[in-house]
Design a protein that fits this description.
alpha/beta; D-Maltodextrin-Binding Protein, domain 2; 2 domains; 11-stranded mixed beta sheet; globular
């Protein structure tokens, strides 16, 4: 990663300019690169996935000494569009801000929920991911994806798959993506939407739906407790957090998907500040403070900085866009 070397005079000048934006130029202290402060902008309410990701990341960065202090601002509205618009419209005064986001920034820009997309922002880094999973109740006769597919082929309308997002949302798209990869008609999926993931899980446990499309980490604790069975995960290999869950690929369904979460900055962010943020995040992964936060939340480390982040997002945009067109959502 980029390192910065200053003469005493240049260093003082740089620090004075940086403090004007509430940002300390990166310096090394005790082997740690230090950013004075980061303000995390969260496009949703308290307690959600974005909120937990921003606060957990800030906790790890500050406790490890990589960042001096962290502050947080929840800005709900417009499916995340309000916060994105704010960051763009106030770019010059937001160089000390990082905004958290995830797969919905791709889905909602494709559907026109808001007019911006990830290209309108400075891409800092993808940081974590949560794979998707198909889950059945503990007493279900379906013990594998093969069983689910057999039932689906016999009677597509009789195999309801639920999820915690609207039709055309992420849980629906994952179910359709899996069916398409298995050689089935993705448009025939009988998808039952619930207001949130918790209600969708309740629907599964009560027998309202045959299977649930959900985040892998949301299912792990219930699977460990024996309440549900995870019959397929959209990862390349089994995930250590619950290695009993088979992947889609090992069952002959060649598809992968991850609901990434990561950080964006205002457009026009100076290159040295971008490098400092990226370096702090990269160093974070080696700290025990981060491992404590990651393990507590059941996250998967997926680090895609800068151009790698852009390539990842562009690939996801194409896959999701093609599928949404096929399903009639675009």
């Amino acid at each position: 990663m980029t390192r910065f070397h200053f003469s005493r005079r240049i260093l003082f000048a740089a620090l004075a300019t940086a403090f004007a934006f509430g940002f300390c130029a990166p310096v090394n202290a005790g082997g740690h690169m230090v950013v004075d402060s980061i303000h995390f902008l969260i496009p949703g309410g308290a307690g959600g996935g974005w909120d937990g990701t921003a606060r957990g990341t800030g906790e790890a960065l500050t406790r490890s000494g990589l960042v001096g202090s962290a502050s947080y601002e929840n800005m709900s509205g417009g499916g995340g569009g309000k916060a994105i618009g704010f960051l763009i419209e106030n770019a010059d005064s937001q160089h000390g801000t990082l905004m958290v986001n995830s797969t919905p920034i791709v889905i909602r820009s494709l559907t026109g929920v808001f007019p911006h997309n990830f290209r309108d922002l400075t891409l800092v880094a993808g940081t974590i991911g949560d794979y998707a999973a198909l889950v059945v109740g503990k007493d279900s006769a379906m013990g594998s994806m093969g069983d689910l597919l057999a039932a689906y082929r016999d009677d597509p309308s009789g195999v309801a798959i639920g999820g915690g997002s609207v039709p055309g949302g992420m849980d629906h798209l994952v179910a359709a993506m899996v069916m398409e990869a298995a050689g089935e008609d993705p448009t025939a999926v009988k998808y039952i939407p619930y207001d949130a993931g918790g209600k969708a899980m309740a629907g599964l446990l009560s027998g309202e739906i045959a299977a649930l499309s959900t985040g892998f980490s949301e299912a792990v604790e219930l699977a460990k407790a024996g309440e549900v069975r995870v019959i397929g995960v959209t990862s390349d290999a089994r995930v250590d957090a619950y290695a009993d869950a088979p992947t889609m690929k090992e069952q002959g369904i060649d598809t992968t998907f991850v609901n990434w979460r990561g950080f964006f900055a205002a457009p026009g962010l100076p290159a040295d500040r971008l490098a400092a943020y990226q370096d702090a995040i990269a160093k974070m992964y080696a700290t025990p403070e981060w491992e404590e936060v990651r393990a507590r939340n059941g996250w998967v480390n997926i680090h895609n900085p800068g151009d790698a982040f852009r390539s990842f997002l562009e690939g996801q945009e194409k896959v999701i866009g093609d599928l949404m067109r096929k399903l009639g959502f675009l």
